[in-house]
Backbone:
């Protein structure tokens, strides 16, 4: 087991504090992001994520004294109004998330672009289509209902496809815990399962050395009481595949890493 995962998890967590379930007000989210970036574990924090539709609100808060995030990821949805050039020229914009069919301005070519995968379908074909567009993959790992949480096998198929095509991905939703929680487990009957972010990093490392979907599925489904078997599979290569993890509460995953003694 590594003495520390600090080099592996550097800049791993993108700040999605504006999004549910946290859904902080803009000013509060900016203040929380600043504290996380300047705190003792600031090296683990990535860009602040903001919907395109709320960029003017962000600028108004900054004008009113809120700290400006040094890095910003902008997110557009399928129903978004036409892109504005100035959205791409905001200070600190480094990445965008947008559907594959949504036209983006020429100014966006310098940014890292993510496209969210559908929850079902042929993962190999889906990842290949995104790769051909010069984008990276975004995979949703959780949700409020059981059908919103991809099975370990579905997630394993995505990880395997990204490894085969060498396409980095970011994961989002539900990754608050270091290890997976089985459906109807300690959270009570009827609650969906949850994937673990350490399981995901382990699966990425394994996929890059040729582990098949069956082996990745087993790794993704390994619970906390066998956590040592997960941690020992994680190495720095995982980050060539797992670009980042979006979380609405950076304190939670960081707190778990501290409790496990993996940042010392």
Residues:
């Amino acid at each position: 087991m590594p003495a520390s995962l600090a080099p592996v998890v550097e800049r791993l967590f993108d700040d999605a504090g504006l999004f549910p379930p946290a859904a902080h007000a803009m000013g509060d989210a900016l203040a929380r992001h600043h504290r996380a970036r300047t705190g003792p574990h600031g090296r683990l924090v990535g860009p602040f994520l903001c919907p395109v539709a709320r960029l003017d609100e962000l600028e108004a808060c900054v004008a009113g004294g809120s700290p400006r995030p040094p890095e910003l990821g902008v997110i557009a949805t399928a129903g978004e109004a036409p892109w504005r050039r100035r959205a791409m020229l905001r200070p600190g914009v480094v990445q965008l998330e947008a559907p594959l069919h949504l036209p983006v301005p020429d100014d966006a070519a310098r940014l890292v672009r993510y496209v969210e995968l559908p929850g079902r379908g042929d993962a190999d074909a889906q990842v290949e289509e995104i790769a051909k567009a010069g984008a990276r993959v975004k995979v949703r790992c959780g949700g409020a209902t059981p059908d919103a949480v991809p099975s370990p096998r579905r997630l394993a198929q995505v990880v395997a496809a990204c490894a085969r095509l060498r396409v980095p991905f970011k994961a989002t939703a539900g990754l608050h815990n270091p290890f997976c929680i089985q459906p109807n487990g300690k959270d009570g009957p009827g609650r969906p399962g949850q994937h673990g972010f350490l399981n995901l990093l382990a699966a990425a490392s394994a996929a890059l050395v040729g582990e098949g979907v069956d082996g990745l599925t087993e790794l993704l489904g390994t619970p906390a009481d066998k956590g040592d078997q997960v941690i020992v599979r994680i190495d720095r290569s995982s980050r060539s595949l797992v670009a980042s993890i979006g979380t609405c509460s950076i304190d939670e995953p960081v707190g778990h890493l501290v409790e496990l003694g993996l940042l010392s």
